[in-house]
Amino acid sequence: MSTSTAHSVVEPSRLTRTIAGTLVIVYALVTMVPLAWIFLTGFKTPPDSISYPPKVVFEPSLEGYVNLFTTRTRQTPDYMASLPPPQTWYEELVRSRQMVIAGPSKFGERFLNSVIIGFGSTFLSVFLGTLAAYAFSRFRVPLADDLLFFILSTRMMPPIAVAIPIFLMYRTLGLSDTHLGMIILYTAVNVSLSVWLLKGFVDEIPREYEEAALIDGYTRLQAFVKVVLPQMATGIAATAIFCLIFAWNEYAFALLLTSGTAQTAPPFIPTIIGEGGLDWPAIGAGVTLFLLPVLVFTILLRKHLLRGITFGAVRK
Amino acid sequence: MATVALSGISKQFGRTLAVDDLSLTIASGEFVVLLGPTGAGKTTTLRLIAGLETPDGGSLHIDGQDMTRMPPAGRDVAFVFQQYSLYPHLSVFDNLAFPLRSPARRVPEDEIRRTVEAVANMLRIGHKLGNRSTQLSGGEMQRVAIGRALVRQPSIFLMDEPLSSLDAKLRADLRLELKRIQRELAATILYVTHDQIEAMTMADRIGILSEGRLVQIGTPRQIYEDPDNVYVAARLGQPAINVLPVGVIPAENAPDAAFSLGARTEHLRIAAADATSANARLDWVEHLGDQNHLHIRIGDFRLTTLADPASRLAGEEAIRVEAVSPLYFDEDGNRIR
C-alpha cells in the first residue's frame, strides 16, 4: 500500500471539491428548469405561453394570476362599451380581452382544502407515529418485530394498487369527497413512514433519561412529555416534512376520491380551462402558489431537517 | 435518611440469574459500596431498589415500609447514573431543579431557587448554573448529576459507578468530595463500583458480589484482611493477591486441609540469596515511580509483589521467598482460619 499520500484523508482535495460542486450545480439546473419554466409561464400572456418556439424573453403579465382567481365571461362590444370605467387594474386587464369578471374561482377553496388535509394528516401521522414509535422502542410489545414489519409492508405496494377497494369502501362509508376521509387516507399511508423514522429517533435517546425522571417523581407520561419529546423535536420536524410533502403532492387518490367539497389543489389545477383549451398561465400561477407552503415549511424546519437526515449516522 | 432492607431479593433476565437471594441491610447514614466485576448484579441491585426493575422474589423495605411493588416515583430514592445523567435540552439550573419541579412535589419556585443554589455551591458549580448542560466538562457534568440527587432529601442515594467515566485526577477529587458531602448530610448511600480504591476509601462497609450473590460484607479492613474465600481476597489489594498451591512457597504451620495459599505483599519475606538457599528468581523490577513491583518466578508459578523501599533488589537475580502467616484456602477456595 502506498503511504505517500500528500493530502488529508478527511479533507476533500481541491479537485474532488470542484467535481462535486459542478455535479451539484448541474443537477440543480436539471431539476430546476421545469420549475423555472412553470414559474415563468405564470407570468406570460396566454398567446405567449403557447408560442413556438417558446419565449424566454417576454413582457410579464399578471393575467395568469387574475385568471386563476376569477371566472370570466365574454361579452359583446356593445355591452362592453356600455359599462362604467373599470375600478381596478385586474378589471381593466380582463376587459382588454373583451371579458368581464363573473365571480371568484374555486382555487381559493381548493387551496384551503389542501391546507386542511395536508396539515391535518401530517399532524395525525406524526402524533400517532410518535406514540407508536415510543411504545415499540420502550415497551415489550408482543410480536414487536412482526408488527413493525407489517407496518412497513403497507409501504411496499404502490398505494394506488388499492384504489378500487378504497373507492368502494369510501363510497359505502360516506367518506368520499370529505376532508375527514382524505385525512384518514393520507394518515394511513404516512403513518408507516412516521413510525419507522421516529422509532429510530426514540431508540437514540438513552432510557436513562426517562428512568431518572421516573425516580425523580414523574409518571411515565410526564417523563415522556418533559424529557423524551423535547429530544425528539428534530426527528418530529423531519418526519413532519416528509409526511406533509407526500400529502400535499398526492394526486391519484385526490383525483379519484374528491370532486367537490374536499377536492385538493393538485387535481384542480390542471383542469383550469381558458378559451380554446387549457389556461397555461393560470396553471403556472396555481402551481407556483401551490409550491409556496411546502417551501416555507421546509425552510422554517431546515435546520432540523438537515440534522434529522444525518441523525443516527453520526454519533455525537 | 432511612434504613433500607433487602431480604431474599432475586431477579432473573431470561435464563440469567442477575440477583440471587440477596439480603442486605443498609443503616441510616451508612455508606455501603457494592464491589464486583461486570455482570455480578451490582447495577441490577440498584435498579431493584429504585423500582426500575421488579424483583421475582424477596422483599424490599425502606424505613420499615414494604416498597417491593411501589413504582419508582413513590419510593423517594435518588439515583446517579454512570452516564447520560443530564437532560441535554435543559440548562444546568433546570437540570438541578428538575426533581423538585415534579408534579408530585409542588415545591414553590423561590424555594427551588434557594435549594438549587445551595447545592450548586456545595458542589462548586454555582457559576455554571446558566450554562447548557452540554457545555460542561466531564467532571462538571458528573457534579451536576450528583447535585440532581442532592437537591431533595431522599431516603437513600443509589450511585451506579458515578465516577467511572472521569479521568483519574477528577475521580480522586470527586471521591473525596463525595465522602465529605456524605458526612455533612449524614446521607445513606449505596454505591456500586468495580474500582477497589473507591470502595476502600469511601465505604463504611463493602459488599462483595459475585454472580448475583452477596459473597461477603464487612468493613474495608475486614474484607481486606479477613476474606472468607479466594474470590473476596482477589477483589482487594494492589497488586492482586498471589494464590499458589500449598508447598510452593515455604511457610510455617500450614493447616492440613489447606489446598492453596494466598500471599499479599505483607505476607512475603524476600531476600537476596546464594545458590544454596535460593528458591526463586527475580525476573524484573517494574518501576512505577512511587512503588516498585517485583515479578518473581518460583517453580512454575509467578508472583507479583511490592518491593520493600529499602531493598536493593535490581532484577535478574536469585532470591529466597518465604510466606509469613499467609491466608489459607481449602479445595473449594473457602478460607481456613
Unreliably modeled segments of chain B: none
Separation of termini of chain B? 38 Å
- Computed over alpha carbons, the radius of gyration of chain B is 24 Å
Extended strand count of chain B: 19
The oligomerization state is heterodimer
Strand order of the largest sheet of chain B: 6-7-8-3-9-10
Terminal residue distance of chain A: 32 Å
Identify the biggest protein-protein contact and residues per side: A-B, 17 and 24 residues
Q: What count of helical segments of chain B does DSSP give?
A: 8
The SSE string of chain A, one letter per element, is: HHHEHHEHHHHHHHHEEHH
Major β-sheet annotation of chain B: 6 strands, mixed
Mean pLDDT rating of chain B: 88
The major beta sheet of chain A can be summarized as: 2 strands, antiparallel
Task: Output the CATH class name of the largest domain in chain A.
Answer: Mainly Alpha
CATH topology of the largest domain in chain A: MetI-like fold
Report on this structure.
The complex is a heterodimer of chains A (316) and B (337). Chain A is mainly α and 316 residues long. Chain A has two domains: 1-105, no CATH class; 108-271, MetI-like fold (Orthogonal Bundle), CATH 1.10.3720.10. Chain A has helices at 14-41, 46-49, 63-69, 77-82, 89-95, 107-138, 144-153, 163-173, 179-204, 207-215, 220-249, 252-257, 265-268, 280-300, 302-310; strands at residues 70-74, 99-104, 273-274, 277-278. A two-stranded antiparallel ribbon of chain A has the order 1-2. Chain A has a two-stranded antiparallel sheet with strand order 3-4. In chain A, a hairpin with a 2-residue loop joins strand 3 and strand 4 (277-278). Chain A is globular and about 85 Å long. Mean pLDDT of chain A is 87; it is low at 1-5 and 311-316. With 337 residues, chain B is α+β, with helices and mostly antiparallel strands. Chain B folds into two domains: 4-235, P-loop containing nucleotide triphosphate hydrolases (Rossmann fold); 242-336, OB fold (Dihydrolipoamide Acetyltransferase, E2P). Helices cover 23% and strands 31% of the residues of chain B. A six-stranded mixed beta sheet of chain B has the order 6-7-8-3-9-10, with helices on both faces. The longest helix of chain B is centred in the middle third of the chain and has 18 residues, at 168-185. Chain B is elongated, with a radius of gyration of 24 Å. Chain A binds chain B through residues 206, 208-209, 211-219, 222, 226-227, 230-231, and chain B through 50-52, 71-73, 75, 77-79, 81, 83-85, 87-89, 98-99, 102-105, 148.
